[in-house]
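My current task is to audit a protein record that another person submitted. My question to you is simply how this chain folds and whether the tokens agree. This is what I was given:
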Amino acid sequence: MKNASFREYRSLFPYMKPYLGKYLVGFFFLLLVDAAQIFIPQCIRQAIDIITPGSFDARAVYKLSAVIIVLALVISGGRFLWRYFIHGSSRRIETEIRQNLFDHMITLSYDFYQRNKIGDLMARATNDLNAVRMAIGMGFVAFIDGTVMSITILIIMFVQEPQTAAFAIIPLPVITLLILFFGSLVGKRFQRVQETYSGMSDTVQETFAGIRVVKSFVKEWWFIRKFADTNKDYRQANMAVVKIFGIFFPLISFLSGMTTLILLLVGGAQVIEGTLTTGELAAFFSYLQMMIWPMLGVGFMVNMMQRGAASLARINEIFNEEPAIASPAKPAAPDMNQEPKIPAEPSVSIRNLSFSYAPEDAPAEAASGEFSGESSGEGAEPGRDILRDISIDIPSGMIIGILGKTGSGKTTLLKTLMRLIDPPPGTVFVHGTDVREWNLELLRSRFGVIPQDTYLFSDSIKNNISYGVTAGYGVTGAHERGDQDRGDLDRGDQDRRLKDAAETSAIAKDLEGFAGGWDTIVGERGLTLSGGQKQRVAISRALSREPEFLIMDDALSAVDAETERTILDRLLEKRRGGTACGTTIIVSHRVSTLQNTDFVIVLENGRIAESGTPKELAAGKGFFSRMAQLQRLEK
């Protein structure tokens, strides 16, 4: 990533504008606190000058003491109020940025997540945003406070005793140069801190997400060592920053102390000569002690602003990402509130489709986890055609089977239907309209997908299934920002769909054995369920939508043959019987799974090698027939 600059802060202006009033009120109380602090040494000066002669009016001292107490109360109240308005505003801005960041990331296409690790994205949304909040909170405070205090104190000192002040501030230009020098070093090193933190977060996320694999291969020691390495890198990156401030702050303190020594020598001589009163010298000492914070405060400000700029650059990288796949400006298909005017047949038409992955997208096919299928070897070789001259029409309501070796292009073909990847223009049509011209949300809402690599949320079985029919996503802590009721069904219709889907997928009988029944929590990624149970919950989730297009991508690979037969019989009966009308596409490596489909295509090296009814293909001498014979022998 390129080095960050303070220009990054321009992206914060829209967020800060609504809170400008609160910031101004906070700065007012901050200045009020500064004024009270600056006035206290004057009270001390007067009190000392009153006491020094030996005979004095005690009431005058009492009055000055009362004034100091009032000033202390003003300082206490003012500090609370500026913290409330300034820090409170920075917290609210942080919340808004994090929400907008999440909203934006949701819109990004699969390729973005294939290029960026989850741990790194989480670090940007937490650790980096915290650094930004510190910059627009305490960073501003340090800048305003340090600038006002420094200028005001210098003016007072030069007005009261210019010669003494001139000698006392000799070290200050050196301090300024040191601040500028060390500030330039902080940004680069802190950027490295954030990057190593992202790497450490990603290591933790991957380890615990794959904990079952880690334990089954007895590789705990390897991941412990891997985390130790990333943890060490994080420590070393932090130490590089700490070393700078380990030199910076003591040096600033030393130079600040030199001003006190100079004042003692010059001011003490003037007191002896009678040109400076004892009270004025005491006030000078107080002001010089107060000058230490502004000097250190500028250092804090430079530190926080540099850190904030580095973190904001990492966050803006995400905001600057545009979705690779998005709805066209003027979709040919109608919006969500209208029904499209579509021909009865074919529901899906593919014409001369050839497709290859771009080099940056090639590894995604293996890593996406959304579908089974092509590996990173044959299936995702950069620049090579994964699909070659595919042409097929799928009539509405037909049940289509797809068979082929791993890497033959099955999953890629399915992804083009929903524009999870973009097919070439004029090659894939749904209801006569090019999928690239559809409203993306409307297009995908017509599909119910059951992937082989099933993902379940850490929630109840009921909520995981109802995810398919509720706009609130069906999971605990769902979206609560005003769009929950978009497309929601009434409670009775929801319950009917859930129970019907659970019966069809044969998960309903398993619920009787769970202590919590429908409310059983499945754990992260469905950890507490078997592979077959997770697949059946996923089947229920897709069926509960009653989709127009049902896609089963090797979705029965983890269930036994008897359960598979039960599910297919129920499903095909519903799809053909009119109770769940629509087009069904079934991808499977089992010929038995495809026996009752209307039509089967066999993919080989991205081409349609065979096509026909299951009986026609079984009677031939192609791949389908060979697989059928092998699987009969295995059985």
About this structure: Confidence is low (pLDDT under 50) at residues 363-379, 471-487. Residues 12-319 form a domain with the ABC transporter transmembrane region fold fold (CATH 1.20.1560.10). The first strand starts at residue 348 and ends at 356.
